[in-house]
Amino acid sequence: MYVHVPFCAARCDYCDFATWTDRDHLIDAYTDACVRDLERWYGPTGAHPRGAVPSATTVFFGGGTPSLLPPAHLTRILDTIPRRTDAEVTVECNPDRVSAEHFEAYARAGVNRISIGMQSDRPHVLAALGRTHDRANVAAAVRAARAAGIERVNLDVIYGTPGETPADWDATLHAVLDLEPEHVSAYALTVEPGTPLGAAVRSGSAVAPDDDDQAAKYERTDDTLSAAGFEWYEISSWARPGEACRHNVLYWTMGEYLPIGCAAHGHLDGRRFWNVRTPERYIEQIADDASPAAGSEVLDSDARVEEAFVLALRTRWGAPFDGANAALAGEIGALAEAGLVEIMGDRVALTRRGRLLAGDVTARLALGLAGTRYD
Questions:
Q1: 333 preceded by cis ω (within 30°)?
Q2: How far apart are CA 153 and CA 114, in angstroms?
């Protein structure tokens, strides 16, 4: 189950997600709509095509800033979701917008994993990203989550911001380790159209991230976290043994998930679908007892095979490969010789160098999967 919370107090300069800073007046109605949408799925005449919806194995509140919801609102949504007793329940938090009271309410409701948007430990890098939080708030949030009994913490960080030196990134990595999280997500800064950062780069008032700088920082991240006992399990994700995010693993293995909230995406019975983008439209659709879905696609068998291969290739365990496809075998052989992939029995996985060039490597293997050699 993915629940999208589209509200933010401020919009980061690099963000192109479906979030709004001027919609707080909709919070009550939006919470009501999420609850009614859940009742639509789980009610006696539920929307699930197979009838009864199975209890959720994972729940992820993303955004936006889920912690901007009053705790009682978020826990009301969570209480409406039937969950397995061992379900993983994650809430993304902005360190500026969360308190001990939030974490105590979350823990009582069954939240057992927190993801905190740290991004950087260096004040000038946070300013360049348009982040408003004080780095001390990150440590305070981690302490408060632990004190409330939430034992699993992820820290999100971003590398490659223009003006961030190698020493700055090392300081961020060491600050991450000092907070002793179970999981770290590290992302390269990307410049998206329609964002303040994108506009600044186009106008020349800001420079774009440097690919070589980002590659070096990725390698530094892998070295530092690996030395501290973390294992990479997806290109941007590292975890202590047994602490991989089960919700994210479900995405990479083409599991099924339901979408709650505006702009949320779902996958069910081979059909991908997505909800209307704005909170107003979502509230209206639910109030009218209509599906909030804005569109969908059904993947044919070939497309499903390709998508499963491409998604699995992002992971430590790699993608299945039986050697029967001559074009794919040829591409894998060439990429293995170049040091970009490794063959592990009946699977093929990216090397660290391959992770740095994952887009190009994946494109070549997707062509091979379709029976076409790369030229």
A1: no
A2: 5
Note every long-range contact of 99-104, with CB atoms under 8 Å and residues 24 or more positions apart, other chains counting.
Answer: 99/144, 100/144, 100/147, 100/148, 101/71, 102/67, 102/71, 102/144, 103/144, 103/145, 103/147, 103/148, 103/150, 104/148
Phi/psi for 179 (5° steps) reads -85, -5
Rounded to 10 degrees, the C-alpha dihedral 48/50/52/56 comes to -70
Task: Answer for the pair 158, 168: CB distance below 8 angstroms, yes or no.
Answer: no
Of 244, 247, 223, nearest to 234 by C-alpha is: 244
Per-residue confidence (pLDDT) for residue 49, from 0 to 100: 55
50: pLDDT strictly greater than 60 = no
Note the pTM of the prediction, 2 decimals.
0.94
Do 62 and 15 touch, CB atoms closer than 8 A?
no
* pLDDT per position as a tens digit, 54-79: 899 999 999 999 999 999 999 999 99
Backbone angles phi, psi at 273, to 5 degrees: -150, 160
Residue partners of 8: CB distance under 8 A and separation at least 6: 19, 20, 21, 63, 64, 65, 68, 94
Answer for the pair 13, 130: CB distance below 8 angstroms, yes or no.
Answer: yes
pLDDT confidence band for 372 (50 / 70 / 90): low
Residue 318 tokens read as 């790699």
CA distance 136 to 157: 15
Mean of pLDDT values over 137-166:
96
Distance (Å, whole) CA 148 – CA 141:
11
